[in-house]
Amino acid sequence: MRVVVTGGTRGIGAGIAKAFVASGATVVICGREEAAGQAAVHAIAAAGEGTCQFVACDVRSSQDNERLVATALEHLGGLDCLVNNAGWHPPHRPIDDIAVAELVELLRLNVVSYFEVTKLALPAIRDARGCVINVGSLVGGIGQVHASDYVISKAAIAGFTRALAIDEARHGVRVNTVVPGVVETPSHVAYLEAQDDPGSAAAEVNRWQWLARIGRPEEVGHLCCFLASQGAAFITGATIPVSGGAELGYGAKAGWVSTG
After folding, report:
1. DSSP the chain
2. Which residues pair with 82 in a beta bridge?
3. Is 114 noted as a catalytic residue in this protein?
4. With the C-alpha atoms ordered 189, 36, 61, 222, is the resulting torsion angle positive or negative?
5. Which terminus of the chain has a lower count of CB atoms within 10 Å, N or C?
6. How much is the pTM?
């Protein structure tokens, strides 16, 4: 299988690339930093019998995206699966503190890049009757405190997936979204380390999931491998959580409400 993973040098993207390489796939990853990209290739290639190549690319740049797809097609000789993963979660802020220009820039990264890279890659994916997998976020469907900008961007992904699944079915192309919950990524580790008591903070986060732990990047990758396989040949337009059940059930929420 021939696969492109955007934002594949760290975190969830690297976990997805590792899972594909472990299954024997030929993978191209992209990221902005050459040194980080080459280090990721070394770590990912050790995961299995597949291969991995890095292409430097800032997915906010149309020129970079064109070069990414052209280079990947030259290296891979075609494309069976595109995984749109590159993105960023800004610091938590109320809407009062988010400039419109900042939102526009975030949408360029988290949404427009998905659209653009997909558009560029679709001719090759249609030829292969392959698939597109978009990485969303659980909070795109359930919301998140002081993250209206990020939630907007991730909610858009599920809608894009459904619309594209309708349009591309006639070409034999399937389109799905995976929505991770809390996953052990460098940003999550940094969040815990910034707390007064990282151990207690980690235990509290674990309690957010019914399975009493956070996810691993490779677990998102395993779902992506399944969605790219013939085992998922009748699945398209779906939004599938990888969340440990974090979205299930009622729980205390309105701590800000006065009890007086």
Report:
1. -EEEETTTTSHHHHHHHHHHHHTT-EEEEEES-HHHHHHHHHHHHTTSSSEEEEEE--TT-HHHHHHHHHHHHHHHSS-SEEEE-----PPP--GGG--HHHHHHHHIIIIIHHHHHHHHHHHHHHHHT-EEEEE--THHHH--TT-HHHHHHHHHHHHHHHHHHHHHGGGT-EEEEEEE-SB--HHHHHHHHTSSSHHHHHHHHHTTSTTSS-B-HHHHHHHHHHHHSGGGTT--S-EEEESTTTTSS-----TTS---
2. 4, 132
3. no
4. negative
5. C
6. 0.95
Residues lower than pLDDT 50 in the chain: none
Cα separation, 259 vs 244, in Å, equals 32
Which tokens is 255 given?
Answer: 């701590």
Fill in the amino acid letter for 242.
V
Q: Which of 114, 150, 191, 250 is catalytic?
A: 150
Tell me whether residue 76 is exposed, middle or buried, using C-beta atoms within 10 angstroms of its C-beta: 0 to 12, 13 to 18, 19 or more: buried
Place of tokens 């599920």: 158
Q: How many CB atoms lie within 10 A of CB 99?
A: 10
Largest CA-CA distance found in the chain, in angstroms, rounded: 67
**Are 217 and 14 in contact, with CB atoms under 8 Å apart?**
yes
- The predicted-structure confidence for 30-74, as pLDDT tens digits, reads as follows 999 999 999 999 999 998 999 999 999 999 999 999 999 999 999
CB atoms within 10 A of CB 48: 16
Task: Count other C-beta atoms under 10 Å from residue 233's C-beta.
Answer: 11
Q: Do 220 and 135 touch, CB atoms closer than 8 A?
A: yes
Strand partners, 183: 215
For residue 252, the model assigns a pLDDT of 73
